[in-house]
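Posting this for the archive.
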Amino acid sequence: MEANISSFPDFDSADGVQEVSRPEDVDFDKMPLIPAIVQDARTGQVLTLAYMNREALALTLKLQQTVFWSRSRQALWHKGETSGNFQDVVGIRLDCDGDALLVLVHPHGPACHTGAMTCFYRAMEPARG
């Protein structure tokens, strides 16, 4: 059975906000790289999972576009700088522990380096036993 994850017509990116956080609320002391789940603010589709350090978060807030820490290149990575597939940030949510982010974006194109709209395009089949 295949689920259609391309659109969530009832998705509201402002739903559930109970308080406002600041960059200093992010617990980078616990982990210098924190996961950043990137979600399309219009559809609710999860686009990718990347990582941010303190500098990447500061640049993301300043540019209002996603900037991540590339673990493979060990460098900052401004999404779209090479491909043109920028992600305009419309909101950021901090989780209850202060060590993970949900970044709501308006994407300019595919999120995945393969050209897929989402990096989560591969379905896993449950084990049959």
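DSSP finds one helix and six strands in the chain. Residues 1-10 have pLDDT under 50 and may be disordered.
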